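As described in the Methods, two query proteins were run sequentially through the folding procedure within a single session, without resetting any intermediate state between them. The first query and its resulting structure tokens are shown here.
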Amino acid sequence: MKYIRIFGAVVLTILMLYVARRNSVGSSEHFVHTDGAYQFEIETVPKGIEHADTVIRVNVVGPFDNGHRVMMQVVPAPGSPVSGKGYMVPFMQMERGSSEFYLRVPVGAKNEKTFYRIVVIDGSGGTIAQFSRPDGSPFVLRSIGHVPVPVLAGHILFIFSTF
């Protein structure tokens, strides 16, 4: 009977880990938005490994003349006492004449968040079009880290000891 309970605990643990992984907040989302003459399309990158680079890709269709550029506008966290527009980082084009752009973003320490919007600016730095989540809030890139083995092993041990 003892072995059946242990086997049942292992199966339930694996099932719970699978369900948690599939339902976790932070899975990428697909967004399409039109602002004026520009259409934006992105598959969000919600998580990045701490102290590593991650790549954000966006597809922007529209008239790119007179020095128009696609930029990532890093903004302060919503509700933060810090005010201002943040700063801008330019996206790179995949190929000349392509509507696909990418940006290699450095991810900070574990649990840090980067809030950003994607904008098209003209040659003088004025915003022509802006792309964010449908509710107007910025996209979020979270920094995640590895769980230490002793913490994970202890957690699993305590799960099994409850049976």
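Immediately afterward, the second query was submitted; its sequence and tokens are:
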Amino acid sequence: MKAQRYWIFLILMLVTLSGCSTLLHSQKNSQALQKRIQVAMEARLAGQWGVVYDSFWQTYRDKVTRDSFLSRSRVTFKSYRIGTITVAEDGKSAEAEVWASIEMRGFTFPEAQQTQIWLYEKGNWYQRVDVDGMQKAMF
């Protein structure tokens, strides 16, 4: 009887610790992503477009050369804020809400909102950016 209780207790402890480990990994992954988004957005504010390009996923970088990306006209970023970050259960993708105050062609957009998609590849987070569409031009 005592042996059976011991095994039940041990199994419950292992399940509990496993859940804590998953939660800690998820929090760490989310924090790493938030830091990565901050670096990419700070680079936009500073006009460091090479850093921005490096934050994009490999598929984009395979299709758009660094020189081509750097030669494009840009919007001017004035400020930003990061909203909700949602990491998928598998930890390989995430969505982040980002608001930015931007200037483009003499117009100011104080709260331009974008849902950014981020992918975890080769040990780091990279922003998924489509080659076509508005996302390539603004964020």
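The longest strand covers residues 107-121. We note this only descriptively and draw no conclusion about the first query from it.
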